[in-house]
């Protein structure tokens, strides 16, 4: 995806796609090198969280004082300089999406506390219209073609240019619980149905929704590539799966003794990263699945309890977080051969924990540093 938002059991069942392969051993190799850019809060705040980043490294999110409102909407330029975004005058505002031209969408409150969908272009705020009879709304995501998706009242809608919003069709009985859209304009999400099930839905280019195959129970998506292949978990308890272009489902190869887990990220050429249950049921193990379905367990050091994956690139390099006791964590990269290295931390004595949250299509790695729950966001850039 060009913009990354930071805004699911049947043993060995394969409904469609490649037959899962057993976990394979990994060989030697060296991880790439990275440099980090910190995304600081506004001068009077002490913590931040980013919500979206485009391929150029321009990020949007919120700046705040710990555990207090309001959140201040902000934009960080490519060098990490923070800029406040204008609001409609209410207490809360939040940017949720950014395209590769730098247009930002989100929501902003008026002084009476009502939330309205908004768009920022070059820092200039514009309120987006809602459907007749609706008084509230929010813009969630924007494609590289400038199409905005969001909510008017309780209705899923899209805006094209300055046009009034158009309702997006949803399956009968669907209450939308998750929604996203690829940079190239392919929407996907999850629907909760009256029977208690949750299903993954993908919309076609003409706007027609399609409910995708399920293992039953609860389905949750985690990521999709620009082709429209979706990964996440299906079933209760959930197991890692991939939803293919034809709407069918492939259960990813189990690793170890536990079948449970989730697929958390997919590359454009089909590498998948995720986590599965470990020998200790309290903890998770990081895994990569190759495009042919072969599964590889990734290294976790003996002094850490578990690892979580957040992104994978087209070479099979995986990015994520290793966790220790209490709140200790480090942002890490696993090279193609499964070997782990920590991503740079400019001040480990102060920034005691770090996490990876995702990656842009251009290869920028997105994450967060913290000290006692406060700290800057971060972008790690590969050194070419």
UniProtKB/TrEMBL annotation:
UniProt keyword list: Signal
Source taxon at top rank: Bacteria
Protein name as catalogued: HAF family extracellular repeat protein
Region forming the signal peptide: 1-23
């Amino acid at each position: 995806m060009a913009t990354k938002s930071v805004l699911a059991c049947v043993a060995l069942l394969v409904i469609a796609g490649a037959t899962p392969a057993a976990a394979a051993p990994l060989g030697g190799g060296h991880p790439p090198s990275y440099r980090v850019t910190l995304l600081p809060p506004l001068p009077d705040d002490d913590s931040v969280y980013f919500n979206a980043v485009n391929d150029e490294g321009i990020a949007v999110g919120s700046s705040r004082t710990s555990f207090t409102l309001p959140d201040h909407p902000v934009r960080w330029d490519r060098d990490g300089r923070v800029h406040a975004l204008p609001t409609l005058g209410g207490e809360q505002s939040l940017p949720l999406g950014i395209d590769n031209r730098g247009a930002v969408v989100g929501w902003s409150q008026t002084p009476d506390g009502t939330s309205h969908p908004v768009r920022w272009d070059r820092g200039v705020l514009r309120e987006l219209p809602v459907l007749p009879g609706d008084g509230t709304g929010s813009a969630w995501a924007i494609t590289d073609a400038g199409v905005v998706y969001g909510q008017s009242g309780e209705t899923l809608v899209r805006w094209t240019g300055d046009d009034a919003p158009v309702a997006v069709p949803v399956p009968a009985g669907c209450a939308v619980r998750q929604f996203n859209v690829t940079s190239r304009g392919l929407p996907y999400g999850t629907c909760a149905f009256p029977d208690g099930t949750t299903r993954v839905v993908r919309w076609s280019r003409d706007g027609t929704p399609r409910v995708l195959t399920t293992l039953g129970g609860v389905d949750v998506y985690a990521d999709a590539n620009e082709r429209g292949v979706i990964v996440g978990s299906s079933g209760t308890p959930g197991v890692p799966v991939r939803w293919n272009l034809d709407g069918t489902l492939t259960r990813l190869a189990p690793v170890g003794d536990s079948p449970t887990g989730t697929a958390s990220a997919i590359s454009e050429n089909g590498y998948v990263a995720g986590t599965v249950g470990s020998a200790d049921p309290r903890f998770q193990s990081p895994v990569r699945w190759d495009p042919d379905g072969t599964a590889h367990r990734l290294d976790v050091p003996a002094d850490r309890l578990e690892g979580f994956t957040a992104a994978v690139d087209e070479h099979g390099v995986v990015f994520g977080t290793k966790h220790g006791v209490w709140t200790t964590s480090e942002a890490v990269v696993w090279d193609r051969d499964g070997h782990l290295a920590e991503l740079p931390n400019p001040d480990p004595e102060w920034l005691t924990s770090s996490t990876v949250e995702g990656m842009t299509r251009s290869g920028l790695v997105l994450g967060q540093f913290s000290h006692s729950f406060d700290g800057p966001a971060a972008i790690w850039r590969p050194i070419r």
